[in-house]
Write a structure and sequence with these properties.
The chain is an alpha+beta fold. The chain is about 15% helix and about 55% strand.
Amino acid sequence: MNPRILAATAATAALLAATIAQAQPVTALVTMEGTAIAVQPDPIEVRRARGAVVIQWDLPRDANYRFDPRGIVIDGEQTPGGLRPQDQIVNCGGGPRRITCTNHNSKRGQFKYTIRLLDANQRLVEKDPQIFNLE
């Protein structure tokens, strides 16, 4: 196949995947209850039939806390042998009230992540929930 056509096809596929991901966000609300973080839903479940999705974590408008500069950290894929590197949930960024990541959602798996907030006194508070890519 012509290298130019192949490159154009790959670029078009990447653009289409990004467009689909933006059109179908999965939203989670992150709150502080006392000194503990709560997230709804927990765990975040994504059905494979949805394809690539953007996962969006939001804080309430009146929150007196904010996301740390590294507000969402994908720690790895949970396996029977422990955590291993993953390539499904990438491009996390945003803040201080909203963080998004792209979930390629191309394979089934269980992924551990860390939510990092700075409380009203600028102290770091963390929680380690999970994301499930389902069938």
